[in-house]
């Protein structure tokens, strides 16, 4: 019997152990959530009293060791305040925490700027380019050399602008004529037309804009200003005008736009002032567009006042001869003469005196030379302003180059603020600078390129010869591309020179246009493209007579159909 009782006790000892196994796991998890100040239980078997050794207990001992969790990962062996440091316990799946390294070993991006004293670092490194805000360095101001002279150059360049000036000089008669025409027609509700002609740069557009801005009686007039060079085709002027006067775009074709615009111009309402700058660019087949423009003011109940501006003096006589048969449609004429030498000098001096210090830049002799040259060539005031402004820019760049490259003493380099200030002589624009700029502006493109024959091929010279001969015989400055190519082929055939086709010939004309020798007006058909000689005939003849081959072509002239065959 005692044997049996001992065996029963062994069985009873194993059964409660199996029931206490999940309880031990719960206690282990609860101990993990507690504070680490309380030491965790070492094993679950020490709390339980042993009744006696048994083989099943010995076999389950490794399972108890698996249930027990390891100590905290933030255990610090060298620290004595481990209880205070390990108050916050991380979850069991969190990574182990690494001790914070010293700031000297961390990279730059790991340093917190709010914990650094920037001022102390700057003080410790005297060679640092960053100055401390507590001790600002004195004397480090931006270096400005010859400030007064630079300001004079800037004022002179601003005064020599080509835009609308504050006041117009030497155009009193023209301004009175335009102002009288506008007052007579606009204030009295009378339709009419005025054609203003003159060379480029004579003040045609500037006078008209000046009157519209300064005259208070014309401030309420509905003015439409259109530059005809901005149009792709001449028929597009109808849609452009209809859009400007507030009628919107017509949904139909160009003829519908023309009818709608004519209906609006003849309806009741205030007078409309229409200014067409570069009106000669409205060239079309039969000159229908130009005739329509000048006929609108003569329509019954018309409220249109037309002002046309162009360079050609005989536009109405040469291109629009039918206007002479209808006196009501013929416009009034006003011609602007080119500026004379005295007028150009007075305008330049007035511009420079209006700016403080600008008159100290250009010599009076240089202004006289510029005015004489411009008045002898074209009388273009814009060209004179451009030449003077370019001369000022040349002198300004020379002064800056000399200032940068001028040697300095060691005393000036060490203490520039204490060095004595010496007023350098103001450099002015003289005769040499003006003559150099005038040579660049009015130098012949053909003469300058004759020295470099590689940049001006023979085919381009033959094209210029053909254009010059065609203009001389036809007495017209404009010629179509088809006729010019036919004459070019005849000259090449007589001189036994291979000729190019029409497409390549058009490319040659475009290359010559980039040199400023001719101008091209594009058309839908390539053969109808109009080519105009921009240089004077004497200048082209003088430049092309350098070569024996080209001079002989100019002497023989264009070949006739019989001789060429």
Detail the topology: elements first, then pairings:
Elements: H1 2-33, H2 55-67, H3 82-85, H4 118-124, H5 147-159, H6 172-186, E1 192-198, H7 204-214, E2 222-227, H8 237-244, H9 254-265, E3 272-277, H10 288-295, E4 304-310, H11 315-318, E5 332-336, H12 341-354, H13 364-377, H14 381-405, H15 410-414, H16 431-442, H17 445-450, H18 458-474, E6 478-480, H19 481-494, H20 502-514, E7 518-521, E8 530-533, H21 537-544, H22 548-556, H23 561-564
Parallel strand pairs: 1-4, 1-5, 2-3, 3-4
Antiparallel strand pairs: 6-8, 7-8
What keyword list fits this structure?
single chain; alpha/beta; 47% helix; 3-stranded antiparallel β-sheet; extended; 565 residues; disordered N terminus; 23 helices; 5-stranded parallel β-sheet
The proportion of residues in beta strands is 5-15%
Low-confidence segments, given as residue ranges, are 1-13, 17-21, 42-65, 78-90, 105-145, 417-421, 449-454, 561-565
What is the radius of gyration computed over CA atoms, rounded to a whole number of angstroms?
Answer: 48 Å
Sequence of strands across the biggest β-sheet: 2-3-4-1-5
Mean pLDDT: 75
Helix content: 40-55%
* Biggest pleated sheet: 5 strands, parallel
Q: Give me the secondary-structure category.
A: alpha/beta
